[in-house]
Amino acid sequence: MLAPYRRLFAAKGALGFTATGFLARLALSMSGVGTVVMIATVRHSYALAGAVGGAALAATLVTIPLLGRLVDRYGQARTALPAALWSALMSAALVVCVATGAPTWTLFVTNVLSATAPNVGGMARARWAELYGDDDRMHAANSFEQVLDELCFVLGPVVVVALATGVAPEAGRVAPLVLTLAGTVLFCLQRGTEPPVRHADPSAGGSPLANRGLQVMIVVFLFTGSLFGSLEVVTIAFTDSLGHKSSAGVVLALQAVGSALSGLLFGLLTPRGSGPTRFLLGVGGMALLMLPLTLATGMAALIPLMFIAGMATSPTMITGMGLVQELIPRARINEGMTLAVTGLLGGSSLGSTLAGWAVERHGAAFGYRLPVGAAALALLTALTGLGRLRATLAPPSSPVTGNAEARHGT
Fold it and tell me: pTM for this structure?
């Protein structure tokens, strides 16, 4: 049954970059939760914790697309290594500021300056695209990558909460800074699968941001990220209000488990219908499955509802990332994918900030209305942008320009 996934690793070096990149990707799933738990525990304020975490995510609106452009221009190793080193140094500075009781403004400054961790997940997807291009194995590759992302979000929160409650509040933030640096270094040492630097074709258009189809995807991902960011902060606060703060990581992991299982099964299927239509259905599924969370009144209800809430996430993200790869030319693939990820992270910043505010003023249970509202906005955007996505992906009528590269302009 898992033959489609086994076929992926027939290529030399595929296992190497996947295994080493996993460490850096795990760090990404730990940093946000680690920051919220550390600051909320030491400074006793979820509003401050959400704001500090949100500020760093907001900074990625600038840093992540810039890093993606630099990766396309100079290569993965030359860009990612110094970026990871700087991120680790500033993360260490944040931990020191929290531990020593430094002024509140130092938490914002150090956390914002730490927002240079490279998007290793995007670089791994670029390596798969280099290996398989338009081959049918790319569907399995995108599915596998999404399952890895979800596995990171299963393990990450559990490890962070265990370290923060069992060792020290700062331990949950120290671990991801170490993993960021170590994972990125090991990933970049896998030079055999690193995509070559390509010069962009001027006829393919300018920045990927000018692509009308990608604009739709970024806005949908913005609201999807708001869903994820608000869900994270609200769940930590909700379990704390029930007297089960140490279970927050496990509860968050359940959402990722549901997503990972659905993604694993989705990768075994042969895609049917158009990508935009499948994406719309996926976003609709996310909105529908988030709705029952507003009924949660205790841990007994929250646990199964979080698992169910995650079951539409992976199929939606797999289809969405596949659409992004279709929209963007190979020479700008890192920048295009990081723009999509920026939408997710920017939305997560907004969601975590709003969730911290809502929890402080209206209580933790009220906060679950935020991810439901974000999912509804994502669905509305996908629905209204469906025609634009189809038009952007449609091959031109002229046989001379009817190739994949010519479709990436505006």
Answer: 0.72
Name the percent of the chain lying above pLDDT 70. Answer: 92
Residue reference for tokens 């993200």: 317
**CATH code at position 137:** 1.20.1250.20
pLDDT for the residue 344: 82
Domain that holds residue 24: 15-199+209-408
Q: Within a domain: residue 9?
A: no
At residue 187, the pLDDT reads 93
What pLDDT is attached to residue 110?
93
Lowest-pLDDT choice from 81-90, 282-291, 299-308, 394-403: 394-403
Which pLDDT band, with edges at 50, 70 and 90, does 353 fall under?
Answer: confident
- The answer to the question of residue 327 being in a domain is yes
Is residue 401 pLDDT above 70, yes or no? no
Residue 172 tokens read as: 């949950």
Question: Could you tell me if residue 400 is inside a domain?
Answer: yes
Q: If DSSP states are collapsed to H, E and C, what string results for the chain?
A: CCHHHHHHCCCCCHHHHHHHHHHHHHHHHHHHHHHHHHHHHHHCCHHHHHHHHHHHHHHHHHHHHHHHHHHHHHCHHHHHHHHHHHHHHHHHHHHHHHHCCCCHHHHHHHHHHCCCCCCHHHHHHHHHHHHHCCCCHHHHHHHHHHHHHHHHHHHHHHHHHHHHHHCCCCHHHHHHHHHHHHHHHHHHCCHHHCCCCCCCCHHHCCCHHHCHHHHHHHHHHHHHHHHHHHHHHHHHHHHHHCCCHHHHHHHHHHHHHHHHHHHHHHHCCCCCCCHHHHHHHHHHHHHHHHHHHHHCCCHHHHHHHHHHHCCCHHHHHHHHHHHHHHHCCHHHHHHHHHHHHHHHHHHHHHHHHHHHHHHHHHCCHHHHHHHHHHHHHHHHHHHHCHHHHHHHHCCCCCCCCCCCHHHHCC
Residue 276: both structure tokens together: 């935009």
Domain count, the chain: 1
In a domain, 70, yes or no: yes
